[in-house]
Amino acid sequence: MKTLYLDCGMGAAGDMLTAALLELFPDPDEFIERLNELSIPNVHITKEKAVKCGITGTHISVTVHGTEENDEMHDHRHHHHHHSGMHDIEHIISHLNLPQKVKNDISAVYGLIAEAESHVHGVPITDIHFHEVGTMDAVADVTAVCMLMNELSPDEVVVSPIHVGSGQVNCAHGILPVPAPATAYILKDIPIYGGEITGELCTPTGAALLKHFADRFGSMPAMKMQAIGYGMGKKDFPRANCVRAMLGETEDKTDTVLELSCNVDDMTAEAVAFATERFFDGGALEVYTVPIGMKKSRPGTLIRVMCTEQDKEKILTLIFKHTTTIGVRETVTHRYILERSIETLHTPYGDVRRKTSSGYGVSRYKYEYEDLACIAKERNISIDEVRKLIEDC
């Protein structure tokens, strides 16, 4: 499957992520032209080659009213123009000529930033004014990354542990520790580290983009590399100040599961059904039964429960509790699975969850039965009619 790995050994900022992803495209100039044609208010974006520690990459410049941000870290702003609130940001996003998915991604990234600012400053999200992250160059950074991610459309995004830097940073509120409070809040539950580099390496915008798009954080997976991009920051450090993006193919997803099996010939159908429900409640991946012939020609039931190693003891306990068996067999097995995701579609008939599965060269989707059934009952129509209404939206 197509995998994107982002190496954040020198942190991440919106412009650096833009530049790194841009280098993965065959025609970066065409993308920059499209970005400028969006007419983000008073913004113009250019790209240029940059060299850090002997490595050649791309640097993105964003000018607002013809002036470029002095500090590469676009999140601690001292502009004197209008400070935008979340409503202003949403207004700008709604008027951009972009696919709805990209607009949703931009809104979600700003939502993470707004939540962090709200928590840090102790005020409602509606009262947040983006004096540090809301100026137009930040909008350009977030928009560009969301557009690039949509067009690259990787099956999985893996992000390295994030180097946040050390020391202190100047911002509109004074001198703050690194990582800045908003950045630290966004990066909760994400692996980060400091080090000998003094300075703010990861900004709130960079953190929010990584958190939104990452499927997981960790080391680079085994992959056949197809393209590598280097997104350069402005500052010079002892280490190359860049985000490195690697696009390649990884093996389609496999995992190891356990199959726990038992045979019973003295349970009613109701008791077997009840046991099956309890196994699912306990974390079983799959439960199924097979009619079998047992000793003395008795008809019986093979009960098979699939689970992970970590859930084995819990499932074993449930099997012995809810069945009449006196022994359980264990088989270690590999399964080949499609990547699965769930999105909620907002239709005129109500919200409908859609499950998408992809991998091994195929992609398929299906709607959640309960959601279809609810609409069908409300409108007194069939499931197939509901499905057609949704497809026609």
Secondary structure elements and their pairing?
Layout: E1 2-7, H1 14-22, H2 28-37, E2 43-52, E3 55-64, E4 67-68, H3 86-94, H4 100-121, H5 136-152, E5 156-159, E6 162-163, E7 165-166, E8 168-171, E9 174-177, H6 181-186, E10 192-193, E11 199-200, H7 204-213, E12 216-217, E13 224-232, E14 242-249, E15 254-264, H8 269-281, E16 286-293, E17 299-307, H9 312-322, E18 329-336, E19 339-347, E20 350-359, E21 362-367, H10 369-379, H11 383-391
Parallel strand pairs: 1-5, 5-12, 6-10
Antiparallel strand pairs: 1-14, 2-3, 3-4, 7-11, 8-9, 13-14, 15-17, 15-18, 16-17, 19-20, 20-21
Helix pairs in contact: 1-5, 3-4, 4-5, 4-7, 8-9, 10-11
Report on this model:
- The protein has 393 residues and is an alpha+beta fold.
- 32% of the residues lie in helices and 33% in strands.
- It contains eleven helices and 21 strands.
- The protein has helices spanning 14-22, 28-37, 86-94, 100-121, 136-152, 181-186, 204-213, 269-281, 312-322, 369-379, 383-391; strands at residues 2-7, 43-52, 55-64, 67-68, 156-159, 162-163, 165-166, 168-171, 174-177, 192-193, 199-200, 216-217, 224-232, 242-249, 254-264, 286-293, 299-307, 329-336, 339-347, 350-359, 362-367.
- The strands form seven sheets. A five-stranded mixed β-sheet has the order 12-5-1-14-13. It has a four-stranded antiparallel β-sheet with strand order 16-17-15-18, covered by helices on one side. A three-stranded antiparallel β-sheet has the order 2-3-4, covered by helices on one side.
- It starts with a strand and ends with a helix.
- Residues 71-82 have low confidence and may be disordered.
